[in-house]
Amino acid sequence: MKRILVVNPNSSEEMxxxxxxxxxxxxxxxxxxxxxxxxxxxxxxxxxxxYTLAGAQVIDYIKSFSDFPYDGVVLACMGDPCLYAxxxxxxxxxxxxxxxxxxxxxxxxxxxxxxASSAKAKPMMESMVMMYGMESRMASVESxxxxxxxxxxxxxxxxxxxxxxxxxxxxxxxxxxxxGCAGMTMISKELSTLSSIxxxxxxxxxxxxxxxxxxxxxxxxxxGLYS
Length: 227
Description:
The protein is α/β, with parallel strands linked by helices. The protein folds into two domains: 2-96 and 205-216, Rossmann fold (3-Layer(aba) Sandwich), CATH 3.40.50.12500; 99-201, Rossmann fold. Helix content is 41%, strand content 17%. 47% of the residues are buried.
């Protein structure tokens, strides 16, 4: 049996629980999944400084094992905080849910939009997509313009926000949508009811992509960026 570690880089118990609920579908006789949170990290990650603080916690956590007991790692934050550094130090493949979600969007549609939470998240998501070189396939980043904690405490706010921003994204040419925060996974099972086009939960995309890497025997190159 292969063991997958899903790391919630923030300290939110509620979000960690929701992530655990989502990934439970993927456990079977071939894979076990453990979900952990970084207890000393910010409660939610809404800025680059939050990303850096949380990423440092993830790096320290992975390096704390003398014999790493997992076969693959999923970094469960849509900002992929310090992902390249995490890949550098991890002895096993690491997938960020943003890179997994974008990759899945490219396979399921031509142009994608990201549904983000706060106004600050919009330029952060745009910057990340540019870093991955995928801006030509992105229709837009649509912001709810509300803090993460607002929809975490009221799923109806999240549902209404997704419906509203999904319509804007479709008008701008999106044919597939991508949830812009791991906390949105709380309504993962309802996504097909919220828009006329597919909505990807990046938590599920991350789990499926790490499983594909492990099943295929693919490894992370140590010859270039992650050397």
